[in-house]
From TrEMBL:
One of its GO terms (biological process) is methylation. Pfam families: Methyltransf_25. Residues 60-149 form the Methyltransferase domain. One of its GO terms (molecular function) is methyltransferase activity. This is Ubiquinone/menaquinone biosynthesis C-methylase UbiE. It comes from Streptomyces zhaozhouensis.
Length: 259
């Protein structure tokens, strides 16, 4: 499951007993060698699906982690890439992923941007947010986009009921809930709380026009029922939305730029 360059079981246990922010600071040097990183096949498929939906001159990666998604944004045509994350450790690694990217340390629930982007993406981060937090995240993403701008993120199909992956995700979420009931600060990381139906409903409630496209994932086995293994949710800010002043980082509200 983990490569030899990945974290040890002891390191993962230490991470899980801290906060989300501190945990990812600890995990950052080895994160790209864990199964928690979004696979390149998903990132590349996202870039292909975004082709032709732009132009995307200015792109934002929400909860960018180690910057794995930056290449997908460049492939989609972005000339300016901005990555936001709460973890200083993850941003330190992301600085090497794309030296031309601007990195901002900030809470994704309180984004320091107004109408500055044509595209916003997020890869694998929504399990770290409870429902109330996601409402703030979607509202902030909508505000960060220009009218007509696009929020896009992949949503994996749930595991087949009764499969090994099904019981693994159930067990992981149950263990995380027990941990959070007994230990503080909480470490929010739930894999089962953000299916496609919830993603669509919450994006629509935030004022987006919502659609999806199936992602072709070469090299991965298809689902037995023929359904796509992953869909790309496309949430567009309506072009007639109330306009905010265009720009990059005005009204920062506590964000810290990382050189």
């Amino acid at each position: 499951m983990f490569s030899p360059q990945g974290p040890t079981a002891r390191e993962l246990a230490a991470q899980a007993l801290t906060s989300v922010e501190r945990g990812y600071d600890l995990l950052a040097p080895t994160f790209d060698h864990t199964p928690f990183r979004t696979p390149d096949v998903v990132l590349e498929a996202t870039a292909r699906a975004l082709d032709g939906l732009g132009p995307f001159d200015d792109a934002l990666d929400l909860c960018c982690g180690t910057g794995a998604g930056f290449a997908a944004l460049r492939a989609a045509g972005a000339r300016r890439v901005v990555g936001v994350d709460r973890s200083a450790g993850m941003l330190a690694v992301a600085a090497g992923a794309d030296p031309g990217a601007t990195l901002v340390r900030a809470d994704a629930r309180v984004l320091p941007f107004r109408a500055g982007f044509d595209l916003a993406v997020s890869f694998g981060a929504f399990g770290h947010f409870l429902a109330d937090d996601r409402r703030a995240l979607f509202a902030g993403a909508r505000a960060a986009l220009r009218p007509g701008g696009l929020l896009a993120f992949p949503v994996a199909a749930p595991p087949r009921v009764g499969s090994a992956a099904y019981w693994l995700t159930w067990g992981f979420d149950a263990a995380m809930r027990v941990r959070n009931a007994l230990w503080h600060p909480p470490f929010v990381m739930y894999y089962r709380t953000f299916p496609l139906s919830v993603a669509r409903a919450e994006a629509a409630a935030a004022g987006f026009s919502v659609g999806t496209v199936p992602l072709p994932l070469p090299g991965l086995p298809g689902r037995p029922d023929g359904a796509p293994r992953c869909r790309l949710l496309l949430a567009r800010r309506p072009p007639d939305a109330d306009r905010a002043p265009a720009g990059g980082v005005p009204g920062r509200r506590g964000g810290t730029r990382v050189p």
